[in-house]
Design brief:
The chain is α/β, with parallel strands linked by helices. Helix content is 48%, strand content 11%. The chain contains 9 helices and 5 strands. Helix 2 runs antiparallel to helix 5.
């Protein structure tokens, strides 16, 4: 039964990946890996959980299939020691790494990753009104296993209601994963002839490192990214700003 469920899960993932856009990494970056697993390995070691999935040479099938059970074990053991001062320090290092931000500079574009919370577009509108960039680009459909209005369109409506001119908003409403967000959006930039050197990335802290790492694979050395985190609202529903 476990093998059957794992196989079904892998097939489901594959059907999702088939829908993603493709783009070749910038020359010289195909084999460059921007994330570091040091903090998560430290976390797993602290909990007494094997970190081999991050250190050994394993295929993507194993990463995907074993990742779900690993996730459950990490959550269970972390919650069991939630009051441990040493664990809090370890988790602080993980959060600090994943959510690292940059000192903002005036840029050409605010790049917003979609989600089920309005926090990200709220932050983007704040930056836009603060004069940090003249355009807001919103990317996001919804996960391949969900239906409904694309996240990018919901965000666009929010921004317009808050006074951002429609001419200053560009949307990409079809992407289904972070990797797809990046590749599909950059492909659209090329199609539209959009030029940019500096871009502000807006997403939640827990997705910031992943989003930045994907983007770094596809931009040239003379292009600059500035990371800024939006607040996180538990529940992820489309809630109005408070």
């Amino acid at each position: 039964m476990a093998k059957w469920k794992r196989g079904r899960f892998l097939v489901r993932c594959w059907h999702g990946w088939e829908k993603e856009a493709w783009r070749d990494p910038v020359k010289g970056k195909a084999d460059v890996h921007y994330p570091s697993f040091d903090t998560v390995v430290n976390w797993l070691n602290f909990l007494g959980i094997s970190s081999g999935i991050f250190l050994d040479d394993v295929g993507w099938e194993e990463v995907i299939s074993e990742g779900k059970s690993l996730e459950q074990e990490v959550v269970k053991k972390t919650l069991a020691r939630v009051d441990d001062v040493d664990l809090k320090e370890v988790l602080g290092e993980v959060a600090g790494y994943l959510g690292e931000e940059d000192v903002l500079r005036i840029s050409d574009l605010i790049f917003v990753f979609g989600s089920k919370s309005l926090s990200r577009i709220q932050k983007a509108v704040e930056l836009y009104k603060g004069g940090l960039a003249p355009k807001i680009f919103i990317t996001g459909g919804h996960p391949f296993y969900e239906q409904g209005e694309p996240e990018a369109q919901v965000f666009r409506g929010y921004a317009v209601e808050r006074g951002v001119p429609e001419k200053d908003i560009i949307v990409e409403p079809e992407s289904i994963t972070v990797a797809d967000n990046v590749r599909r959006s950059l492909n659209l930039f090329d199609k539209m002839g959009m030029k940019y050197l500096k871009m502000i990335l807006v997403t939640a802290w827990f997705a910031q490192r992943r989003s930045w790492a994907f983007m770094m694979k596809y931009i040239s050395e003379d292009q600059v990214l500035y990371r800024v985190n939006s607040p996180v609202k538990p529940g992820g529903e489309y809630t109005p700003d408070r």
